Amino acid sequence: MGQNRENKKSPGDFTGGIFQQFRTAKNNLPSQQRIICEWILNNYQQAAFLTAEEIAKETGTSNATVLRTASSLGYRNFTAVKEELKRVLYSATIPPLDRLRDTFADNEKVDILDQVIKENIQNLKSLRSRHLAETFPQAVTLICSARRIYIIGLRSTRGLAVYFHALLHQFLPDIFLVDSAGTDNMLDVMMDMSKEDVLVTLMSGSPHYTKRTIASVRFARDHNIPTVLITNSLSSPAATMATELLLCPQNTSHYSTISLMTVIDALVVEIGRRKTSEATRKLDELGPLLVEYDISL
After folding, report:
1. Which residues contact 281 (CB under 8 A, 6 or more apart)?
2. DSSP state of 95
3. For residue 150, what is the enclosing H or E element?
4. Which of 12, 101, 199, 288 sits 20 to 30 Å CA-CA off 18?
């Protein structure tokens, strides 16, 4: 957006490296290979962790075509392409604080409200992926089958964790914020968890993830506690430790958690649908109590 950003490589905006290589070479490739190049350019965060066969399904091509595309681009195999994409993911994601700083330093005369709305809309349009479509119902099943639901989100996702907790607590029992008493008491809370529970973890600090959030996922893994990780990047150190991972990429020039918020809203709706009788009963009882005790009108 501003002059500060011109010196930084933001995701999908590289002037060199693998992205430039794809952009330069794709026009000289056969049509099927061009389709694969375009898809990887637009979905590189997913492509870095998919097999050649999975990308073939996404693009309507064949496994052999994906392999030929890698060769045409000068890579020894498709694994080498994925390794380069992972390197980009791990090294080039703009931290939230830098994204905020760059936005504040932008002196361009633009309608900021209109720009943010348009970028958020475009980000949401690109949110749905095959990976998310497959993992979302699995994550819901994991949460709905749990005895107790624990939620953790620190720093930039702290508000999201509180929001998710507040909504679920409206219609379900046994919903806990892991850090409600401060992260110093995190393990005190988690020690009460068992493999019948689930930990829902929110992370969007790429590449500067909070150590205590990572520690919570590691603790859950080490104690056989199922974990649902909601994150904006596969570079999260907790990604390989989670039972289910919901990827919500942030493809905006401004700092935003709109993708994570959207997935949280979808989880609340689907969990409520699957637990209709339990949810309805508590909501019916809660409404009159709020009025009776002068908490709401």
Report:
1. none
2. P
3. strand 149-153
4. 101
Question: How far is CA 294 from each of CA 166, 171, 202, 283, 289, rounded to the nearest angstrom?
Answer: 19, 20, 34, 17, 8
Q: Which H or E element spans position 71?
A: helix 63-72
Alpha carbons 150 and 38: distance in angstroms, whole number? 40
For residue 172, give the nearest of 286, 278, 289, 290 by alpha carbon.
Answer: 278
Which of the pair, 29 or 130, is modelled with greater confidence?
Answer: 29
Question: Is the per-residue pLDDT at 7 higher than 70?
Answer: no
Model pTM above 0.85: no
d(CA 14, CA 6): 11
pLDDT digits 0-9 by tens, 199-236:
999 998 666 678 889 999 999 999 999 999 998 876 67
Query: How many angstroms separate the CA atoms of 60 and 144, rounded?
Result: 34
Determine the 3-state secondary structure of 244 from DSSP. strand
pLDDT tens for each residue of 56-98 = 999 999 999 999 999 998 899 999 998 888 777 655 455 555 5
CATH class assigned to 3-92: mainly alpha
Q: Residue 143 in contact with residue 271, Cβ under 8 Å?
A: yes
For residue 297 the two structure tokens come to: 């009108």
Q: What residue spans define the domains of the chain?
A: 3-92, 130-292
Task: Give the class (CATH, top level) of 130-292.
Answer: alpha beta
SS3 155: helix
Residue 77, both tokens: 């195999």
CA gap 281, 289 in Å, rounded: 13
In terms of DSSP bridges, do strands 244-247 and 175-177 run parallel, antiparallel, or are they unpaired?
A: unpaired
Ordered DSSP codes for 30-50: -HHHHHHHHHHHHSHHHHTTS
Look up residue 253 and give its DSSP letter.
S
